[in-house]
Amino acid sequence: MRLLSAVVGVILLFLSAPATAAEGLRIIDLTGQFDRFAMSTEGMADGQRVMAFEKQIGPMAHGFYARKRSPAGYDFRVLVNLKTYPERRARVLAVSQHFHQLFAKARQSFERRFGPVGSSQPVYLIDSMGELDGGTRELNGRPTLLFGADVIAEVHSNKNMTAFFHHELFHLYHEAIVPSCLAIWCSLWEEGLATYVAHRLDPWANDDELVLNLPRPIRPAVEANRARAICEVLRLLDSTSDDDFSALFQGDDRLPGYPSRMGYYIGYLVASDIGRTHELHQMADMTLVQARPLIDASLRRMAICPTTTAEAHERSRTGRTSS
């Protein structure tokens, strides 16, 4: 199996050699390096194993595994994932074996609609130690698209992954148009639009394939009281807090009474609403300045929310009334 992993890794690296300017993308599969390290250091003392991991694996993928990226609990996290790796090894290597073919097919269909998509950084396939199935991370100051073979194996097994890949490919396309923005409304637009694009390119895709069922089904939980959920998003719209981002776009329960990751679905509702009057390419090419008033108007069409204290004070001061 170890020899097979090495052969597969060499084949994928050959197929994903540095791209020409015309191709614009290169894929680097690092699952083989992770596999060889995890399996060859099984008998090493814990402290030595972490030190070796930090030295050998830490710099890979622009420092995705580096201690400085996430220092809290680093030793524990590394050891747990190395010790449990044999349990998920076969599934991770299976993803590695088929990833290039599946991704290339999705890329072709995406580019038929949007034209060539590229990135100044490689796209990495890694064992993410449970962090992600796919997503962009700021690594060494550079936005980098990564796919986690371990989480893909866990949440996308036996599913059609085309919509999932289209979502992430759209982020590559979109990053050339929109600047980095930490406000919640920017993430609402970027993630909602990526979900909407995946839906438009793959109208057959269900909520599992659109990743709207993690960690639990989001759509029914929001639709049970859509107005309340939208008003909560409106309240946080201009926040740049990591906690608020985590509550709306990551799988935690920081907003009791609301579904985890509901920002994806509400962003999708916003994009779908705007899509009634705007072409898909027009939406994809909007700047954030152009998108913001459309986002605000869409949310307010979908819910009548209580006036906040700050809004009431401003209206009293300026004499403005609600239109």
Termini gap: 67 Å
Structural class label: alpha/beta
- Estimate the helix proportion, in percent: 55-70%
Order of adjacent strands in the largest pleated sheet: 1-2-4-3
Number of strands: 4
Q: How many alpha or pi helices?
A: 15
N to C succession of SSEs: HEHHHHEEEHHHHHHHHHH
Compute the gyration radius: what is it?
Answer: 21 Å
- Multimerization status: single chain
Average pLDDT works out at 89
Largest sheet: 4 strands, mixed
Low-confidence stretches: 1-22, 309-323
Based on Cα principal axes, name the global outline.
globular
Strand content: 5-15%
Walkthrough of the structure:
- The protein is α/β, with parallel strands linked by helices.
- The protein is built from 15 helices and 4 strands.
- Strands 1-2-4-3 form a 4-stranded mixed sheet.
- Strand 3 (134-139) and strand 4 form a beta hairpin.
Compact description:
58% of the residues lie in helices and 6% in strands. The protein has 323 residues and is an alpha/beta fold.
Features:
single chain, 323 residues, alpha/beta, 15 helices, 58% helix, globular, disordered N terminus, disordered C terminus
Secondary structure layout plus pairing:
Blueprint: H1 2-15, E1 27-29, H2 31-40, H3 46-56, H4 60-63, H5 74-114, E2 123-126, E3 134-139, E4 142-148, H6 149-155, H7 162-175, H8 184-201, H9 218-223, H10 226-236, H11 242-249, H12 262-274, H13 280-284, H14 288-302, H15 309-318
Parallel strand pairs: 1-2, 2-4
Antiparallel strand pairs: 3-4
